[in-house]
Structures are given as structure tokens and as C-alpha cells.
Design brief:
InterPro entries: DUF6266 (IPR046233). Pfam families: DUF6266. By secondary structure, the chain is an alpha+beta fold. The protein has 2 domains: 2-32, no CATH class; 43-211, Immunoglobulins (Immunoglobulin-like, Sandwich), CATH 2.60.40.10. 19% of the residues lie in helices and 31% in strands. It has helices spanning 43-61, 66-77, 83-91, and strands at residues 2-3, 14-16, 19-24, 27-32, 95-96, 100-101, 117-124, 128-134, 147-154, 162-163, 175-179, 187-195, 206-211. A 4-stranded antiparallel sheet has the order 1-4-3-2, with no helix packed on it. Strands 10-9-12-13 form a 4-stranded antiparallel sheet, with no helix packed on it. A 3-stranded antiparallel sheet has the order 7-8-11, with no helix packed on it. A hairpin with a 3-residue loop joins strand 7 (117-124) and strand 8. It is globular.
Length: 213
């Protein structure tokens, strides 16, 4: 890739010969076009192409929700262009052909808050999740008032993450019972994380799942 500053092509965009030019801000770049793909429908390339639409679909479903705010904040912390670009970077490889989603590895929250130590499920039922953890309140990255938050994805709406109602539990409680909403779902994927009381910082998430018998 070449930079075309002080060139007659500065500000140009489009294909020129075997190159494509484009402008970002005040700089114009030229990049050699990729060679013709001999087998554009190979298994590997088909799998790769299927990842982006899945990630985009799930991100669009978070617009206007707390999750979109989480992605915007963590993008700033990691100096990424936007919450959208952060989400794609974190999750694109979790999607695949035929609506495949690697739910346990999906990242629905991240940030500078710490998760509590030893967070675990002590009981998992179709209608509730019981959790315990060690209170690690000690620094600005772990406050007693940090609120337990749970996002869920139900198998009948596989691209639609939703944030459950306020659990009412904080880091200092050391345990929680999280009701799981009724519905026509069979499996619920649950992502537990903590939110600062002022809503300006969030933690990574921990994954659990429950299925109806």
C-alpha cells in the first residue's frame, strides 16, 4: 500500500489499472488489487464469509440497549474505532455457516471492572440461576456497589441478546438468584457481568446455560 500525498491522485478514489485508491481524512492511499480467486466457493472461504453477517446481525440487535453502551465504552478503553468494530473484532470468529454460534465463547460484555473471585453457579434450573462468588471489593476496579447484570440469548431468537431486568444484587452480596424469563425457548444462554453504579464501566462476562427438561 502506498500513500499518495502531494500526488495528482490525491483525493481520488476508485480503480486505476491494477490498483484501487481511497481517501481517509487528508491522506490518499493506493492498494494493489487482489489476484483473482481461483475457487471463490471453497469450503474455507464460504465459512469465512458466513462469519461477518452473523456478527453484524447480532450487533444490530443490541442497538439502543445497555449492551451497545458497553461496546462503545470498551472500544474507547481499547482505543478502537467504535463499539461496532470492537464487537466484530471480539466475536466474528464465533459465527459460522447454518446459523452456527459458539455461545460459550461469545463476548457480550468486557471492560475495566473485575469479575468477582470464584464466581460459580451453585444451582441451575430452567427458571433460575443461583450464583456465588467471593467479594473482591478493594479498588476502583471492584466496588461493593457494582451491580450484577445478566444478558441472555434464547435458542428461539439466536441473534437477539437481551438484558434481563435488574437482578437487585451487588458485588458485596456474594451470591444471587437470577430468575430466567418464561418463553418458548428450550435453551437459554446466560452472560453474567458487573456494571459500575454510574454505568460508566463494565466487567468481562461469565457464561452459563440452562435447558428445559
Amino acid at each position: 500500500m502506498a500513500t499518495l500525498n502531494d500526488s495528482v491522485l490525491q483525493g481520488a478514489s476508485g480503480k486505476i489499472g491494477g490498483y484501487v485508491t481511497y481517501t481517509v481524512g487528508n491522506k490518499t492511499y493506493a492498494r494493489k488489487l487482489a489476484d483473482t480467486i481461483s475457487n471463490p466457493r471453497s469450503e474455507g472461504q464460504t465459512t469465512q464469509r458466513s462469519k461477518l453477517p452473523g456478527a453484524q446481525t447480532m450487533y444490530r440487535a443490541t442497538r439502543g440497549s445497555m449492551l451497545e453502551k458497553v461496546y462503545t465504552l470498551v472500544a474507547r478503553e481499547e482505543e478502537r474505532r467504535s463499539g461496532y468494530h470492537w464487537f466484530l473484532h471480539a466475536n466474528m470468529n464465533m459465527f459460522g455457516p447454518n446459523d452456527y454460534i459458539d455461545y460459550p465463547r461469545l463476548v457480550l460484555s468486557d471492560g475495566s471492572l473485575q469479575l468477582p473471585f470464584g464466581m460459580k453457579a451453585t444451582a441451575i434450573h430452567a427458571d433460575k440461576l443461583e450464583l456465588e462468588w467471593l467479594d473482591n471489593t478493594s479498588t476502583v476496579t471492584a466496588q461493593a456497589t457494582d451491580q450484577l447484570t445478566v444478558a441472555a440469548i434464547f435458542d428461539n431468537e439466536p441473534y437477539q441478546p437481551v438484558v434481563l431486568d435488574d437482578t437487585g444484587f451487588c458485588r458485596s452480596n456474594g451470591k444471587a438468584i437470577v430468575p430466567v424469563p418464561e418463553g418458548t425457548w428450550t435453551t437459554a444462554h446466560l452472560y453474567c457481568f458487573f456494571a459500575a453504579q454510574d454505568g460508566k464501566r463494565y466487567s468481562p462476562c461469565m457464561y452459563f446455560s440452562t435447558s428445559k427438561s
